[in-house]
Amino acid sequence: MRDEELRRRIGAVAEHGERVVSPPDPAVLYRRARRRVARLTAVGVLVAGALLAGGLLARAGLPGDDRFPAVTVPPSPPSTAAPPTTAPPTTSASTTTQPQAAPARFPVAPPMIGDAETSVPMAQLVTPSSGWALTRTRLAWTGDGARGWRTITPRQIPAGRIRGAFFLDQRTGWVVASAKARETGPLVRLAVYRTTDAGATWRWYSLGALDLGKDDAAGGYEGGFGVLAMPSFVDPRNGWVSVQTSSTRYEGHHFLFRTSDGGATWTRLPQPPEVQRAVLSSPTRGWAVVMGQAAATSGPGRGPAGLYTTTDAGQTWRRIGLVPPPSLRGARIELREPPTFKTPRDGFLPVEFHAGGGGSARTLAVGFYVTADGGATWTPRYVPLAAEDERYGQVPLAAGGQGSLLALVGHEARKVLTSRDGGHAWTPAATGLEGRYPAVRGLAFADHRTGWAVAGRGVSLENSCVPPTRRCDSDGALLVTTTGATTWSDATPAG
Fold first, then answer.
1. CATH number of 72-490: 2.130.10, 1.10.3470, 3.40.630, 3.40.1350?
2. Global pTM?
3. Contact 479, 416 (CB under 8 A)
């Protein structure tokens, strides 16, 4: 070794210590390298996981995202048992022991169904001052009597894919949506979104995939939906969703699902044929309507059109016999929606009494079958229509609070019939609606003064707006009254 290099090394040792000039042991270097590689690998895994989770969250928030697992529901369920529908949680609602359900909350008016292609196809009056309305572009909520609206549409879906909604109170609600804005084909995939914070956030669950067999969805329920879903909840955990689809062959398909865990899992139920709508009055007691002429006899199992009830959460059904009052003997009883229960025992079933036999059909009387014992017995309460008010078609009826019953009758709903004693006595009054809207499709009241109505298109040129004018709006509207239906204002949400 040269003297210059020797002197340099000796100087370095004197200044910094021997470790500067002495290389470390190779075994030490190997252990240090293994520890460094392990640390870098762990950091890489954490970074990759964070990026993946962030990507999934971003994808979930994209409008129009189809997060619908293809869960096929058998077209024909057994009549005695219902197979569970697979959903994201692995525990079936039909086998899991649930805590005691909260008591039913009354009164809550059921959602109103309008025309699919009008400005307000659906709406629900939840309290006298609050409720929701579905428009073409958003699901809107009001808490100030429909003076102002805020958007509560689940961010995962556009409003055009919403097929039904229900709010139990001002914070807890459910929305049913399909995978497409316009359903076609034999497979219809549905999902349920639930909120517990007044629509600020929503949680997604699968309702399942409806297999229509050799049939296919027509791409429009009454011209726009293809699928109509009608949720009904009696408390935050127990609820139903009745689903009906249209088809290119004009054949309806009907499905009924039940949840006992707030919508996390769903079970398809056996049902009477062609159920249009089903509601719960307790966690185990429910009601369903098959549209058409109601049967005058009752019996077990499936049968013709009429009112059906279940006491075992939808596993078996019994048809309720409804007999016309003596003064209307021979009239046909027409049902269009299930009963509304204002308490667990007090219910009101809207009905129309039509003239039987040949010739043009006429609506002779309108009213309700009322019960004060939870549906064990039903008594007719009705009002005969004046000759100028008789017509064929739906008559909007609603049950308010404290025994108040209301019906909108006459051409373009020009008259309101009101009862304040449960249907014994009726008082007529003008509504001011004649000439403003072709038809009123739905009616709901929170009390005897405060109500909502959904206006839609007429059923013929005679009672449609041709051409439309500012006075006669054929595009539909949400109407609000605080005077017991004697005056109305247009409260349609913008958009």
1. 2.130.10
2. 0.76
3. no
